[in-house]
UniProtKB/TrEMBL annotation:
Stored CDD domains: AAA (cd00009)
Protein name as catalogued: Sigma-54-dependent Fis family transcriptional regulator
Domain Response regulatory span(s) in chain numbering: 7-121
Keywords from the UniProt entry: ATP-binding, DNA-binding, Nucleotide-binding, Phosphoprotein, Transcription, Transcription regulation
UniProt-listed GO biological process terms: phosphorelay signal transduction system; regulation of DNA-templated transcription
Domain of life: Bacteria
PANTHER family: PTS-DEPENDENT DIHYDROXYACETONE KINASE OPERON REGULATORY PROTEIN-RELATED, TRANSCRIPTIONAL REGULATORY PROTEIN
């Protein structure tokens, strides 16, 4: 038995009852025993007692009377009464007055007793934690509020439409101008485009530019969870609504009340769920699962998809009435391959953020790295670009960011882009010798790009002498580079 266990005081004038309770509780609790109220009070004064388990029938003072005294002197202790009488008026009258947590009848069952005391120990822990948090809040409240306000200002500056990363001639300028126009009104906006193009970032910027900027911004990926779970997440539920619903849960629609909700991948929802979603948008109310009546909600809905919803409507996969509800304004977000002028700016920002978070010195991306990045098609868009930057920073030797540390697929794209003759590989035209020559030329060029045109390192990697490498460069016209 250690003092780390919750302290329980058993108050009972019958020694056999004391011993039985002690044997039942000693593995899970640090048990103290007392035969009278006076003895119990002495123990309470010197020991850390979290739970008081008291018999009702004792000489001199009843259990309820003693627990009233405990409530006044040691209000944090959780109080439990045991009685052999099912209709004790004293107990019934004293439960609220003495703040009694539980009323147990004799003969008690060990499993029930242990379950009750474990619950009491958890209540004591929660009370103590709540008191500590309340004290911390009183002490640190002003500082925390200032920090939260400062952090909010940083977020608003970072995600403001006029500061989103883009070049002066970027196609994103037209997107941001349109978002600025629609931000003033509660018009439903549908953002379309490939995955990884930054639709959630734009939705957040739209929220921060709207009159709802000081209210919550809530996000949910509709394609990541099945219908039943998605319904409970968005609508919430009442305790007992289904197996495992042990307490009420506030849904994301209600959490976003007054603000905005971003429904990503809305095209992945089923027609059955779309009916429920349509009612929320039409009626402005949401009914938690198991609730007797709906709750009003006032929010702005911003949806996003990488699917062609108009084609899905024609095919019957997406409800037409829901489509027109969410797509009052449809904005197509261009993929990264259509914004080559933005790639260097975004990549450099990722580099700065990564190095700063790691406490490393800032670095500028070299021309060789930027040429490789802009030559690649980026099917994964901005998300893939970020991963390439992380890879390059992680593999850098002596802190130097090199093109050689980019993924092979990015380097291959750079080699093809920089040497049009190597495009023969994509079509595989010509006889066997022509194809092999094209393949060999591409391999040689990739090696040179990786080693920043250091012929000694490239020759070593390819298993060639410098003279042999020079001959191949001349043969394939690579020496002109």
């Amino acid at each position: 038995m250690t003092s780390e266990l919750p302290g329980v005081l058993v108050v009972d004038d019958e020694l056999r009852s004391q011993e039985a309770l002690h044997r039942t509780l000693e593995e899970d609790f640090n048990v103290f025993t007392a035969s009278s109220a006076a003895e119990a009070a002495e123990i309470m004064a010197r020991e850390w007692i979290q739970i008081v388990l008291c018999d009702q029938r004792m000489p001199g003072v009843s259990g309820v009377q003693f627990l009233r005294e405990v409530r006044d002197k040691w209000p944090d202790a959780v109080r439990i009464i045991i009685s052999g009488y099912t209709e004790s008026e004293d107990i019934i009258a004293g439960i609220n007055e003495a703040g009694i947590y539980q009323y147990l009848l004799k003969p008690w069952q060990p499993e029930q007793l242990l379950l009750t005391l474990r619950g009491a120990a958890e209540i004591y822990r929660l009370q103590t934690e709540n008191q500590r948090l309340s004290l911390d809040l009183k002490v640190t409240g002003p500082v925390m509020r200032q920090r939260v306000a400062s952090k909010r200002q940083v977020i608003e500056r970072k995600f403001a439409l006029d500061t989103l990363l883009r070049a002066p001639d970027s196609p994103m300028n037209a997107v941001c101008e349109l978002l600025c126009k629609v931000a003033r009104l509660d018009v439903p906006v549908l953002l379309t485009g490939e995955s990884g193009t930054g639709k959630e970032l734009l939705a957040r910027a739209l929220h921060l530019a709207s009159p709802r900027r000081s209210e919550p911004f809530v996000t949910e990926n509709c394609g990541a969870v099945p219908d039943q779970l998605l319904e409970s997440e968005l609508f919430g539920y009442k305790r007992g609504a289904f197996t495992g619903a042990y307490e009420d849960r506030v849904g994301l629609f209600k959490q976003a009340d007054g603000g905005s909700i971003f429904l990503d991948e809305i095209g992945e929802t089923t027609p059955a769920f779309q009916v429920k979603l349509l009612r929320v948008l039409q009626e402005g109310e949401v009914r938690p699962i198991g609730a007797p009546r709906p709750l009003p909600v006032d929010l702005r809905v911003v949806a996003a998809t990488n699917r062609d919803l108009e084609a899905d409507v024609r095919a019957g996969r997406f409800r037409e009435d829901l489509y027109y509800r969410i797509a009052a304004i449809t904005i197509q977000v261009p993929p990264l391959r259509e914004r080559p002028m933005d790639i260097g700016l975004i990549a450099q920002t990722f580099v700065d953020e990564t190095l700063s978070a790691a406490g490393l010195a800032p670095q500028r991306l070299g021309h060789d790295v930027l040429s490789c990045l802009t030559a690649y098609r980026w099917p994964g868009n901005v998300r893939e670009l970020r991963n390439e930057v992380l890879r390059m920073v992680a593999l850098a030797d002596d802190g130097e960011l090199r093109a050689a540390d980019l993924s092979p697929r990015v380097l291959r794209a750079a080699a093809v882009e920089q040497e049009p003759a190597l495009e023969l590989l994509s079509g595989l035209d010509g006889d066997l010798k022509t194809r092999l020559d094209a393949l060999e030329a591409r391999i040689v060029r990739e090696s040179l790009v990786r080693h920043r045109w250091n012929k000694t390192h490239a020759a070593r990697e390819l298993g060639l002498s410098r003279v042999g490498l020079r001959n191949k460069l001349t043969r394939y016209g690579l020496d002109k580079d």
